[in-house]
Amino acid sequence: MAGFSEFQNNEIDMFLPVRYTLERTNKRGSTEMRTQSMDTSPEAERVQIELIRKASPAKLFGLVRSLSQGVILASRENIRQLHPDARKEELDLIFIELYYGKELANRVPKGIEERKCR
Q: How far out from the chain centre does Cα 88 lie?
């Protein structure tokens, strides 16, 4: 593997992933593309892209929603591991601050107190 110093002037080529041609049905002919993952074959990626193109909006929304939920769960788990002694409420506030900002995180405890008083 090449050292970082060997890549200069925007010549980084993502460790030279496999290049392949994806045939298109338009007049431009083919477009050269690279696989997005080094461990996925060009043919497998072509099939994945075709399935995504054919998917309904509902299916695509479901995929995005699932991915978002997975990222949120992973983030919360990481926060829990970084703060093993924190209570759930503290972990929630750390998450809110990271993703929504300190201003909102500072307002949440007051909102919770107001709800308890109702």
A: 25
The three-state secondary structure class of 62 is: helix
What ranges do the domains of the chain cover?
A: 13-54, 58-117
Average pLDDT over residues 89-111: 94
Instruction: Provide the 3-class DSSP secondary structure of residue 20.
Output: strand
| Six-digit token string for 13 | 């080529």
SS3 41: coil
Candidates 50, 46, 51; CA nearest to 34 is: 46
Do 21 and 33 form a contact (C-beta atoms < 8 A)?
yes
The residue-averaged pLDDT of 1-16 equals 38
- Over residues 42-77, the pLDDT tens digits come to 888 889 889 999 999 999 999 999 999 999 999 999
Let me know: does 24 contact 46? Beta carbons within 8 Å: no
Cα(61)–Cα(56) distance, rounded to whole angstroms?
9
Q: Is 9 left (phi over 0), alpha (psi -120 to 50) or beta?
A: left
Cβ–Cβ under 8 Å, residues 38 and 19: no
